[in-house]
From TrEMBL:
Its EC number is 4.1.99.3. GO terms for molecular function: deoxyribodipyrimidine photo-lyase activity; DNA binding; FAD binding. Residues 1-106 form the Photolyase/cryptochrome alpha/beta domain. This is Deoxyribodipyrimidine photo-lyase.
Length: 461
């Protein structure tokens, strides 16, 4: 939109201490910033990276450049919303034109509401209403050329200062992420094309299979803004028009984009989503505080192969298959009775697609503490999930190589392997691979009793 003004543009990236991310997502966002800088250089310009509080540094730049218009993509998290409001107020008092634009979602949080003007609390009803709005607007085509404003000396000094700030690095053990996730808009488009051409037709039938490469793997690119949800939507919609036979599978995928919007709607109206139970009855849940069990879960040493495979994939690559995310989250919150916020924090540190809305919503969903959440009594059995969704153990063998020589019938329950087989394949249970850290049936009983005995539940009975 800035290009349509006919004026020279200044592209600004603010390294704001209030919103700076660490861990894998910090590294990923910095990689996307560098990719944007290279793309602008190819257009004959530069990305101005500065450091400071956004509501303060942007007005300073407006003065230095003598700018009369400021545009940005609006934000929905508490800090972002507060900063956007403060920036609009400050610039408005100076008669500077401001535009906050919708660049992240299919529909703004307030665009899909109940008949009484309230936000939806159930996804199926929200999705039905969202579909009635029709397809989201199309993205504005990228400009063929840009005219850039020259940088005054004072601006160059600000850029030099920001350049001295150490760049975020990948967390320990996550070196594979640099190879698995190339970071440009072109890479994002390649992932989208491959998905639409090869996998969207099988999505609803194979999306839960971690042993198959059927998911889009677009989540890091959506998180960093290297591709937009609207671009993805219209690409998939075009594929449906071309081949109606893929419609059911494709719409299942598009509903996942809907879940993303639904998460941002929750964050917009419930700013405590990442930190507080949305269902207050869980404020009295007697969560366990066992550091050893938490560490075993974090590092894929629980003794349950599917859980361990997922946690190791996360640790090494910064990503995990969505079905496995649900399994490991259920295991932590229900079998280990550990506060979901500890899992959410670990994911936010390790994921390259760590998203404040989706990460928090999904953890609250799995823990049963959020709106439209999985009920507490729905406890994923990691053995059953493993046998159903990784039947041959291919996923497990990839990430838990010490089990790779077990036959398929034992790959999900290695503790059932007899001593002779263990010796033959070099497996030493309790040494090279841990015994289960918790007994599933007993842990399930404790979890159900803990919920049943909540004070709020007692009042209802």
């Amino acid at each position: 939109m800035a290009c349509t003004t006919g004026q020279p543009v200044v592209c600004v990236y603010v390294q704001d201490p209030a919103t700076r991310r660490e861990g894998a997502i910090g590294w990923w966002l910095d990689q996307s910033r560098r990719a944007l800088a290279e793309a602008l250089t190819a257009q004959g310009g530069e990305l101005l990276t500065v450091e400071g509080n956004t509501p303060d540094i942007i007005p300073e730049l407006v003065t230095l450049f003598k700018a009369d218009t400021v545009l940005w993509n609006r934000r929905y998290d508490p800090v972002g919303k507060e900063q956007d409001t403060a920036l609009k107020t400050t610039l408005g008092l100076r008669q500077i034109t401001t535009h906050s634009l919708s660049g992240r979602l299919l529909h703004e949080p307030w665009a899909v509401q109940t008949g009484s003007g309230q936000p939806y609390k159930v996804f199926t009803a929200w999705w039905r209403a969202a579909r009635e709005l029709g397809a989201p607007g199309r993205c504005v085509p990228a400009p063929s050329s840009l005219t850039f404003a020259a940088w005054p000396a004072a601006v160059k000094a600000l850029a030099t200062k920001a350049a001295a700030i150490p760049a975020p690095t990948l967390p320990e053990g996550a070196a594979d992420a640099a190879m698995d996730w190339p970071c440009t808009e072109a890479d994002a488009q390649d992932f989208l094309k491959d998905f639409v051409d090869d996998n969207v037709a099988r999505y609803s039938t194979e999306r839960d299979r971690p042993d198959k490469d059927t998911t889009s793997r677009l989540s890091p690119y959506l998180r960093a803004g290297l591709i937009s949800a609207r671009q993805v939507w219209h690409s998939v919609e075009a594929a449906i028009e071309k081949n109606g036979a893929i419609s059911e599978n494709a719409w299942t995928f598009l509903s996942e984009l809907g879940w993303r919007d639904f998460a941002y709607m929750q964050l917009f109206y419930q700013p405590t989503l990442p930190t507080e139970n949305l269902r207050s009855e869980f404020n009295d849940m007697p969560w366990h505080d066992d550091a050893a069990l938490l560490k075993a879960w974090q590092h894929g040493q629980t003794g349950y192969p599917l859980v361990d495979a997922g946690m190791r994939q996360l640790y090494q690559t910064g990503w995990m298959h969505n079905r496995v995310r649900m399994v490991v989250a259920s295991f932590l919150t229900k079998h280990l009775l550990t506060d979901w916020r500890k899992g959410e924090a670990w994911f936010h540190q390790r994921l390259v697609d760590a998203d404040p809305a989706q990460n928090a919503m999904n953890w609250q969903w799995c823990a049963g503490t959020g709106i439209d959440a999985s009920p507490w009594f729905r406890i994923f059995n990691p053995i059953g999930q493993s046998e159903k969704f990784d039947p041959s153990g291919a996923y497990i063998r990839t990430w838990v190589p010490e089990l790779r020589h077990l036959p398929d019938k034992l790959i999900h329950t290695p503790w059932k392997a007899d001593a002779a087989l263990c010796r033959q394949i070099g497996l030493h249970l309790g040494t090279t691979y841990p015994h289960p850290i918790v007994e599933l049936k007993a842990a399930r009983t404790i979890a159900l009793e803990s919920y049943k005995n909540l004070p709020a539940r007692q009042k209802d009975e």
